[in-house]
Specification:
The chain is an all-alpha fold and about 100 residues long. The protein is built from 6 helices and no strands. The longest helix has 18 residues. The N terminus is likely disordered.
């Protein structure tokens, strides 16, 4: 029961990410596939950098996620960067990420 509840919360969090303009479909996977990948100690090798950043954030390693997202320069990385700052409660830096 607890596992299903946690999975549901995680899916809601992933839907929150979609609301910020980032969809896992962009990376060719479903939310369920992404959530399944979290059982491993490392992100799958085929994950591109931004997907690895999301993976680390979901595993609770905000710093690694932030380091990765700062290495990519695109509109998608800006949205993920803003998402990371919002998750941390840093709305000032989140707003800056959209500029």
């Amino acid at each position: 029961m607890k596992k299903n509840r946690l999975a549901h919360i995680s899916l809601l969090q992933m839907n929150h990410l979609t609301a910020h303009g980032v969809s896992l479909k962009t990376f060719g996977m479903t939310v369920e596939e992404f959530m399944d990948s979290l059982q491993f100690e490392r992100p799958p090798d085929h994950f591109p950098p931004l997907l690895r950043a999301l993976w680390y954030e979901k595993k609770g390693d905000w710093n690694t996620a932030h380091q990765i997202v700062q290495t990519v320069h695109s509109s998608r990385s800006c949205r993920i960067h803003a998402y990371l700052h919002r998750k941390k409660g840093d709305n000032k830096n989140a707003a800056y990420s959209y500029q």
